[in-house]
Amino acid sequence: MPKNYEIKFPVENYNQVKKKALALRGKFQSQNHYSEAQKDFYYKVKKARLKLRVINNSFGSLIFYDRPEEEGKRISEYLLVRTKDHNEMKEILDNLFDELVTVSKKREIFIYDNIRIHLDKVKNLGVFLEFEIIFSSIDKAKKQMKEMIEHFGLDEDKFIKNSYSDLLLKENKKHK
Question: How many alpha carbons fall within 13 Å on the CB side of residue 159?
């Protein structure tokens, strides 16, 4: 299974964080930048996590991932399958599992080599910065993560260990 090393951080100034992400251009061999609307349907499963991500309401990805939830910086193992017919995939999943929560977000994505930077506006939660470093060597990934944290001037005490689904479930409980 592929692995990524990730962190999440609340954002106070979207434009400032975006400028820092754009300032990384030219420091990496491959780079890409784009935006998309994502809707993640999380399902109740016995082990790990399962979600259907619908992107720009045009295609989807079924994502299974497993990770410990006790640290700010986490290693995830994941499997991802793309589908052009996300509606049929959702119908299958809805017949097999109970839906846990739906997370809607606008995501600005910056890809530099194996580093994915996400600047997310999450409905009912706020704005977040997320780093995902896809790796084969955890030592290299840790070094890259340290460089990203320093570049963005992040305070490690403010890292968020929860997924958006967990944060949204907590928020929903407050309002019941």
Answer: 20
Gap between the Cα atoms of 60 and 109, Å rounded: 17
CA 59-56-88 angle, 5° bins: 35
76 pLDDT band (50/70/90 cuts)? confident
Establish if 126 belongs to a structural domain: yes
CB 120 within 8 A of CB 106: yes
Widest CA span in the chain: 49
Note the pTM of the prediction, 2 decimals: 0.91
3-class SS at 48? coil
**CATH number of the domain bearing residue 78:** 2.40.320.10
Q: Are 43 and 97 in contact (CB under 8 A)?
A: yes
Number of domains observed in the structure of the chain:
1
Query: Residue 156 CA to chain centroid, in angstroms?
Result: 18
Structural domain range at position 132: 3-171
Q: Given a cut of 60, is residue 72 above it in pLDDT? A: no
Lowest mean pLDDT among 16-30, 58-72, 94-108: 58-72
Task: Kindly give, in sequence order, each residue whose CB lies less than 8 Å from that of residue 53, ignoring residues fewer than 6 positions away.
Answer: 38, 39, 40, 41, 60, 61, 62, 63
